[in-house]
Amino acid sequence: MTMPFKQTFLILTTLFFLASCNKAHFPWVYRIDIPQGNFVTDTMVAELETGMTPEQVQNIMGPPMLIDTFTPNTWYYLMVYRPGKGDVVKQEIIVYFKDGLYDRYDGEIIEDFQEKTQGSKDRDLENKARQQSKEVIEAD
């Protein structure tokens, strides 16, 4: 007994759509990099000094991703970077204020952030550009 063409087509189409909803990564599908949140670097946190006003902190760090209504003296700088290929990079920096002034921060700064979030092709292009600019400077 063979299935009619319409039933076979319907089953295959349904399976295809169910597979595409899965988190399976097909090698021929291009996936974009998705950065979300605040990118906090070690130079930003190095500029923070105890006693700064919230405005001064915001000038250095940018606006926080979240200020909880119940704890307005705590600012959250959250970041999630989902590359099209590679591992997800997450960072959570929490800034604390005491009596309306900057007190301290908690969280771990990603040391090699650019290395983790930049694709190898981008790094290769950047290195080529640096090499070409050195050659131009040496030629002058």
Written account of the structure:
This protein is α+β, with helices and mostly antiparallel strands. It has a domain at 31-112: Beta-lactamase Inhibitory Protein, Chain:B, domain 1, CATH 3.30.1450. It has helices at 5-21, 42-47, 54-61, 113-117, 120-139, and strands spanning 34-37, 66-67, 74-82, 89-98, 101-107. Strands 1, 2, 3, 4 and 5 form a five-stranded antiparallel sheet that branches. A hairpin with a 6-residue loop joins strand 3 and strand 4. The longest helix has 20 residues, at 120-139. It is flat, with a radius of gyration of 24 Å. The mean pLDDT is 83.
End-to-end separation in angstroms reads: 81 Å
Strand % is: 15-25%
Q: Class of the domain at 31-112, according to the CATH hierarchy?
A: Alpha Beta
Pick out the low-confidence regions: none
Overall strand count: 5
| Average pLDDT number | 83
Features of the shown structure:
140 residues; alpha+beta; Beta-lactamase Inhibitory Protein, Chain:B, domain 1; 5-stranded antiparallel β-sheet; 5 helices; flat
Please give the structural blueprint.
Blueprint: H1 5-21, E1 34-37, H2 42-47, H3 54-61, E2 66-67, E3 74-82, E4 89-98, E5 101-107, H4 113-117, H5 120-139
Antiparallel strand pairs: 1-3, 2-3, 3-4, 4-5
